[in-house]
Design goal:
By secondary structure, the protein is mainly beta. Helix content is 15%, strand content 41%. The chain has 2 domains: 92 residues, Winged helix-like DNA-binding domain superfamily/Winged helix DNA-binding domain (Arc Repressor Mutant, subunit A, Orthogonal Bundle); 211 residues, Galactose-binding domain-like (Jelly Rolls, Sandwich), CATH 2.60.120.260. InterPro entries: ArsR-like_HTH, HTH_ArsR_DNA-bd_dom, WH-like_DNA-bd_sf, WH_DNA-bd_sf.
């Protein structure tokens, strides 16, 4: 899949696709060619001279990059017609996941848009941003109740919480064995600030799962999916965090953060699963929250719930 992001062209690969591309770029000469082409178009003679390689060797390596669609070759008029090579992509992104989860029949997966919260209490600085503009007024908590909030691709606040409710699709007679939430998230600072810790807490069905201290509010480099109109001086992307609760406890990115188990969450007692994300009033690091949708930041997702149940 190809993504056009600002002035950056990204090649997004599955792990299987990445194997073939890695074979092509796993060569010093071809990597050096890509480095040179990142500065501007060159013909084979120019590449050969800069690399200190024979023309024939350079041409063979250019052809391999061309066959992999990593560079493009165009006929350019000048002193006669000459072939000029240019890089085709600025970045290569490899998705480190498989479709194994999709094949599991006992997994319920729901991707919740970040604007579909059912309750919130937020304090400035705060705001909602769509793919094309602000929603309501900045730093006005009333904007969080605008109907257009469902179009939000970025929401942020300094204190408070947002709460989501996922439909409970556990089949009757089955037992929940594990629940996992993943989201792109970071702290909220004025503009952005890499050193801006925030204690972010997660609750599932009103049970506190644990707190993670995000190190900062990330910016200065445009997120892969962040739209062009959003200034580079503001927050650009977050970190993709995975919160998991099973019979052994609660985990964040594989590290246990509390003893709360899936049995403590009463997942069979309600027609919905509640997820609350917030910064406590007494948090030591009250650095706020940025939540990203699929068209902002680095990851094409909202807040994904994976709920596993018994066979």
């Amino acid at each position: 899949m190809e993504l056009e992001v600002f002035a950056i062209k990204v090649l997004q690969l599955t792990m299987d696709e990445a194997i073939e591309i890695s074979k092509v770029i796993g060569n010093e000469h071809r990597m050096n060619i890509l480095k040179i082409l990142s500065t501007g178009p060159h013909n084979v003679n120019e590449l050969s001279e800069k690399l200190g390689l024979p023309f024939s060797t350079t041409a063979v390596n250019v052809k391999k990059l061309e066959d992999a669609n990593l560079i493009i070759t165009e006929l350019v008029p000048g002193r006669g017609t000459q072939k000029v090579n240019s890089k085709n992509y600025d970045r290569i992104v490899i998705d480190l996941f498989t479709d194994a989860m999709d094949k599991e029949k006992n997994v319920i997966t729901i991707d919740m848009p970040i604007g579909e919260y059912v309750d919130c209490q937020v304090q400035p600085s705060c705001g909602l941003v769509s793919e094309t503009d602000y929603i309501g007024m900045q730093d006005d908590p009333r904007s969080f109740y605008e109907p257009g909030r469902r179009e939000a691709q970025l929401l942020y606040f300094r204190h408070g919480f947002v709460e989501y409710r996922y439909p409970n699709r556990i089949p009757y007679g089955k037992k929940a064995t594990e629940i996992e939430f993943s989201m792109e998230i970071c702290s909220e600072a004025p503009y952005h600030k890499l050193d801006w810790p925030s204690d972010i807490t997660l609750w599932i069905n009103e049970v506190e799962i644990g707190t993670w201290t995000c190190p900062g509010d990330f910016g200065g480099q445009r997120g892969f999916n962040t739209p062009e109109w959003w200034t580079i001086y503001f927050t650009q992307y977050g970190l993709l965090k995975h919160w998991k609760v099973n019979q052994n406890g609660s985990f964040l990115d594989g590290v246990q953060i509390s003893g709360v188990t899936v049995s403590d969450l009463n997942l069979h007692d309600k027609p919905f699963v509640s997820l609350r994300i917030g910064v406590k009033e007494d948090a030591f690091n009250a650095g706020g929250i940025n939540l990203f949708g699929p068209n902002f930041g680095n990851y094409e997702q909202g807040i994904i719930m994976n709920l596993r149940h018994s066979e």
